[in-house]
Write a structure and sequence with these properties.
- By secondary structure, the chain is of the alpha+beta class.
- Helix content is 15%, strand content 45%.
- The strands form three sheets. A seven-stranded mixed sheet has the order 6-5-4-3-8-1-14, with no helix packed on it. Strands 9, 10, 11, 12 and 13 form a five-stranded antiparallel sheet that branches. It has a two-stranded antiparallel sheet with strand order 2-7.
Length: 237
């Protein structure tokens, strides 16, 4: 696959910071639309799951409801790209692990990649992080008690990224995927699925642009403990 030099992922905040309890909103979620029309994230207080798709920003809250965001809401962590598919292939009757393995056979494990899977799913299982208030807990504690939702025979789109192991901590090494149904009534952070029939689109990325919350005193003063957050990401994801 030819990687276009202009392709990049833009990320505000770090997943490692979110894991440690740095959940204060430090950027307007709409600001990320200046850097991409496709991506994912969360809102202040680790409030739910955000999906950027076709330039629209959706939010799945802890009740399972989906809303369109105004862009004024604050985020501690989100990542986007301008999605332009470089590789497309159909897929059917396949589990999440099987599809991920197929994608990994087609991409470099040393590059970020944007992943889009649109189709009909025999089964879709998601979780949604519930909103927290200060003092924020560690994210792994939230993940142990977060609401989970399942749907059968549902049409929609998986939106997400593959992150190389080298960048584990900034993001989650491996696949980080969110889902939204075509009718915008079901979505969240993907736990597992079975694809009935659909199309997979992949875009490998030439750059990783990390934006830090430089105006947040908490972020600047709180040293992130890499060993702790590495284990927490593996459990939470």
């Amino acid at each position: 696959m030819l990687v276009k030099a202009k392709n990049y992922i833009y990320q505000h905040g770090t997943l490692g910071g979110l894991m440690q309890d740095l959940m204060e909103g430090t950027e307007k979620i709409g600001t990320l639309s200046n850097y991409g029309d496709f991506g994912l994230g969360t809102l202040e207080g680790s409030n739910g799951e955000v999906i950027f798709l076709d330039g629209v920003i959706y939010h799945a809250d802890q009740t399972g409801a989906i809303h369109q965001l105004s862009g004024e809401e604050l985020t501690p962590y989100a990542a986007v790209t301008h999605f332009e598919s470089d590789l497309q292939f159909p897929s059917s009757a396949i589990t999440d692990d099987e599809l991920k393995a197929e994608i990994l056979n087609k991409i470099s494990h040393n590059l970020f990649a944007a992943i889009k899977v649109a189709g009909t799913f025999k089964h879709m299982h998601v979780r949604i992080a519930p909103k927290q208030v200060k003092p924020y807990p560690r994210f792994v504690e939230i993940a142990r008690n977060q609401p989970e939702f399942s749907a059968a025979e549902i049409s929609g789109t998986i939106v997400g990224f593959f992150t190389p192991k080298l960048f584990h901590g900034a993001a989650a090494a491996g696949f980080h995927l969110h889902f939204i149904s075509d009718d915008h009534k079901f979505g969240g952070h993907v736990l597992d699925f079975k694809l009935t029939k659909g199309q997979v689109d992949v875009m490998e990325l030439a750059e990783f642009r990390q934006h830090f919350p430089t105006e947040s005193p908490e972020y600047l003063a709180n040293e992130i403990k890499l060993a702790d957050i590495t284990k927490d990401i593996e459990e939470a994801e």
